Amino acid sequence: MKNTRQDKYPHSATLFRFCKRALEMRYAGNVKVIDQDVGSILGYDPADCSHWKKGKKNIKTLSILKSIADHLSIDERLLIGITSGHIRLDEALFEYKGYGDFSFSNTNLENLKKDYFKYPDKWQQGGFGEGKSFEELFKINSSALSSLVKDILEKIRPFSLPLSVSKVYELFDSASLELLENQEADYKVEYHSRDGRKKNLKFSMPSSQPSFMKFLALKELYRHLCLTKDQAIKEYVEFPEEVLEIESNLFAGLILVPELELKNRMSELDISQDFIKQLAENFAVSLALMNKRLGYFINN
Prior knowledge:
By secondary structure, this protein is mostly helical. The protein contains 15 helices and 3 strands. The chain has 2 domains: 10-97, 434 Repressor (Amino-terminal Domain); 106-299, no CATH class. The relative contact order is 0.10.
């Protein structure tokens, strides 16, 4: 009897969807990506492309994965994670997109400066730009962030790696973290009013706590603390969204990969092995985040 199943190799089908979404992200919606664009990465004809898409073709050899990695300019280990079923599609796409900026690039600063002087009234809205120079308005307060992270980590007892995001949330009365039994569930951010003024944050995610969801949970927590002017933010100043975005990324990275522990683990590395992978496993974060965090550590 003929096998009519469409998903004999479901992880290969997931890889196909990843490749298509990655191409769409690369072209930023300016080019319509069709199935055959994905198949052409490996030189597949329409029939082979269709089999790949439907999970009838097993895509797993390292040479094939390397070809896809080279075409998409990504680490082939991400593709191995997809085809082995260890990395979900949403996590893989987040990894491909990246973990955001940990600092302003020169290009970003130049564009912001042009906008700042061209539309001065825009930066007065909300009061955060009034009387502030460009340099004051777009300063990343890394020292205040380091101080905040240090205070948080000192309150977590017992302290162990990988760090528990739940224990971080437990330090704040206005925030809660819910771990879901449904491992296929997406993360969810909810706010509800408290005392008619401030709002409580509730972040939900699977109990397996995928790396990117832990990052997003901590990022959302920092935004919440700033926007509600929590007393934990000792040097709180109102600042534009562009600064909040970068500082929330930094906060999440500094919590998940604490500086002192990073220094200690680096001194223990086996230099004959992939040290990024070793560090990522120590801190239970992704390779992409570990690369980003290590880059910030080295340059600061």
